[in-house]
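Sequence, please.
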């Protein structure tokens, strides 16, 4: 995967570590990261927390948060960064489909990126079947991490 190769180089060059917190993607993002060149040096790991109870226990997500929300994504990213001791963490949570879930349409995906500068969130609406939504979510998670690494490197200059 080209994005993973680019992220591998950028992460090593910046001297930062990264982590992932996943719900919707069920480990697909962490799996992609783990295939990166030299991942043992820069990838701290991933937490797959599909159910809200798992998000709460493993990542410190508030037990009453909407699991498909910006608040949940923010808490997941901050939790992964802390639990795994990473410089940068990304999270992804949402609805893959094919059906609506708790009033959220299929393809609704929340991302968050936690860094020294704080936590920022993004909302996307992806088209396609569940597999396509997951694929698009993994690609966007990689791009978000790449942006975070570039920002970290820029801040160190």
């Amino acid at each position: 995967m080209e994005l993973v190769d680019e992220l591998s180089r950028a992460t090593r060059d910046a001297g930062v570590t990264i982590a992932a917190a996943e719900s919707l993607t069920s480990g697909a993002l962490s799996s992609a990261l783990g295939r990166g060149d030299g991942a043992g040096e820069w990838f701290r790991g991933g937490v797959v927390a599909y159910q809200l109870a798992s998000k709460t226990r493993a990542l410190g997500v508030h037990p009453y948060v909407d699991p498909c929300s910006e608040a949940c994504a923010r808490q997941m990213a901050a939790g992964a960064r802390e639990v795994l001791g990473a410089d940068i963490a990304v999270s992804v949570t949402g609805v893959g489909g094919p059906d609506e879930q708790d009033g959220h349409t299929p393809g609704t995906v929340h991302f968050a990126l936690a860094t020294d500068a704080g936590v920022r969130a993004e909302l996307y609406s992806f088209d396609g079947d569940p597999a396509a939504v997951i694929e698009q979510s993994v690609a966007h998670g990689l791009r978000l991490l790449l942006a975070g690494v570039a920002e970290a490197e820029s801040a160190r200059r």
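The longest helix spans residues 130-156.
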